[in-house]
Amino acid sequence: MNIDDKLAKVKYVTDEETHLKVTQEKCKKCKQKVCTYICPANVYEWNEEEQRIIVNYENCLECGACRIVCTEKSIEWQYPKGISGVTYKFG
Ligand code: SF4
Ligand code: SF4
């Protein structure tokens, strides 16, 4: 089973407000932008034209990896409110 098949099994309830915030000034200076390739759900995208990180927070799997690897401590990460966020189905 590949990652796309696994992601298809995940259910989300999207919060109107993001639970992931970045400090764009830090991201702009960040050389490696590791968030754009370690996130399993491709939440972070670098927009070269606008010189900013786009955060597709509604796809977040709540694994917490981005918060650990961000070298600039730019990510403010919280669990989504109430019943919002991801639901995993096992089996
Ligand atoms: S790794 Fe951190 S500082 Fe760098 S682009 Fe991603 S969120 Fe911004
Ligand atoms: S918590 Fe995990 S899935 Fe969510 S944005 Fe960070 S790395 Fe991606």
The portion of residues assigned to helices is 10-25%
Instruction: State which percent range the strand residues make up.
Output: 15-25%
Structural class, from helix and strand content? alpha+beta
**Can you count the beta strands?**
6
User: What gyration radius follows from the Cα positions, in whole Å?
Assistant: 14 Å
Bound compounds, please? iron/sulfur cluster
Shape: globular
Order of helices and strands: HEEHHEEHEE
Count of alpha/pi helices:
4
Stretches where pLDDT falls below 50 for ≥5 residues? Answer: none
CATH class: Alpha Beta
CATH topology grouping: Alpha-Beta Plaits
Number of domains: 1
Which CATH architecture is right? 2-Layer Sandwich
Ends distance: 13 Å
Q: What number is the mean pLDDT?
A: 87
Largest sheet composition: 2 strands, antiparallel
Strands of the largest sheet, in order across it?
A: 1-6
